[in-house]
Amino acid sequence: MINSSDEITIAVTVFNRRQFLKQAIASALEQKAKARVIVVEDCGPDPEMEQFVRGEFGATIDYFRNEKRRGLFDNWNACLERCRTPWLSILHDDDFLSPDFAQAMIELSRNAPNCGLYYGEALVVNDQGQPVACGARPPLRTPWRRVKLEENIEITPFGFPGHVFRVDSARKLGGFRASSQYCGDWEMWSALIAHYGAAQTSTLVAYQRSHDGPERGTNKIIRNGRLRPLTFVQQKRIVRMLREQGQPARFDRAEFLKKSPMSVSYLLQYGATLSPRLLRYHAGLLLRSTAPPSLPWALFRKATQVFGVPFVKAASKMAKHREAGLSGGRSTQTSSCKAATT
User: Fold this and answer.
1) Mind listing the pLDDT tens digit for each residue in 255-283?
2) How far is CA 266 from CA 18, 312, 330, 332, in A?
3) How many Cα neighbours within 13 Å face the side chain of 166?
4) pLDDT tens-digit profile of 172-198?
5) In contact, 40 and 12? CB cutoff 8 Å
């Protein structure tokens, strides 16, 4: 159980984004129940980042800079190493917290003691902080609930910001997978749920920013075509965890593709730039998807079935050419939340 906010550290991670950083740090400092706040910079290219942060916040935060670049998830391990409290919350520099976050986590831990992970509702917002429909999850119908591991198979059931986890538990699990490209958080949350339990509150505690910045890790994974295969790997990990607990579990990719068929808009946006191997992979997912969301989707799938991968690549090139013409030569990007859906 979290006895007080003094037991919580909020670690704001940063690499090279100033435009949202001030809001992220301020949201951590402005908690109604005060927590320790640190900033952990992953050896970014901005030599004046620390000066900028200290100029804004002075001695109210501790600032740490890695001696060398560690990458997204290993920087989270740096947060674990720097944490001096029993509980840790990691906050990306482009997200921000509600002032009620820390207090909500304390109250949740009292309702559901002895868990390794607690989290609340996170609202997806755009660059300006306005709510967007992307990533919306069904609201919790009770004030709080305990979380089951099997709920994590298809997708992690909560947004990244707005969590707190027991530091000792995460360390016993070996920390975050430093080599992970996309699912390092999903993997850790699942392991914490499996070994130590988790609980969720219906209180809105955080805001997750969805934007098209090229430096955003999720956007990179979407553009290079690794989101789906990495997701499938994590889903299989969770099935293995469930079987280790003696629970019958399986992941049927065909059934999953019925509920989440391969997106034609994604293939049109990125097909021309995917590697040949990943283009074949995604075209194969399209052909395995058996629940067409629309007639154009069904026609595109049929054309792919008849003409193969060359058709997908040619259609993507035509779509990009048309897009460039409509935008007057300016490049436009599909938002990360849209590209990841059908």
Assistant:
1) 888 888 999 999 999 999 999 999 999 99
2) 30, 11, 19, 13
3) 21
4) 999 999 999 889 999 999 999 999 999
5) yes
Structure tokens given for 308: 């193969």
What's the Cα-to-Cα distance from 48 to each of 21, 26, 41, 44, 75, rounded to whole Å?
Answer: 14, 19, 12, 10, 19
Could you give the angle at the alpha carbon of 32 between the alpha carbons of 20 and 24, nearest 5°?
A: 10
Per domain, the residue ranges of the chain are 5-211, 218-339
Location of structure tokens 């947060």: 79
39, 29 contact by CB (below 8 A): no
Q: What is the pTM of this model?
A: 0.89
pLDDT in tens, 231-245: 999 999 999 999 999
Residue 135 in this model has a pLDDT that exceeds 60? no
Torsion angle (degrees, nearest 10) of CA 212, 217, 218, 221: 110
Confidence of residue 326 (pLDDT cuts 50, 70, 90): low
The second-level CATH assignment, the architecture, of 5-211 is Alpha-Beta Complex (3.90)
Q: Confidence band (pLDDT; 50, 70, 90) for 330?
A: very low
Phi-psi region of 237 (alpha: psi -120 to 50; beta: other; left: phi over 0): alpha
Radius of gyration of the chain (CA): 21
β-bridge pairing 163-166 and 62-65? unpaired
- Helix extents (H) in the chain: 21-29, 49-57, 72-82, 101-111, 167-172, 184-196, 217-223, 227-244, 253-259, 264-270, 276-288, 295-307, 309-326, 336-339
Residue type, 176: F
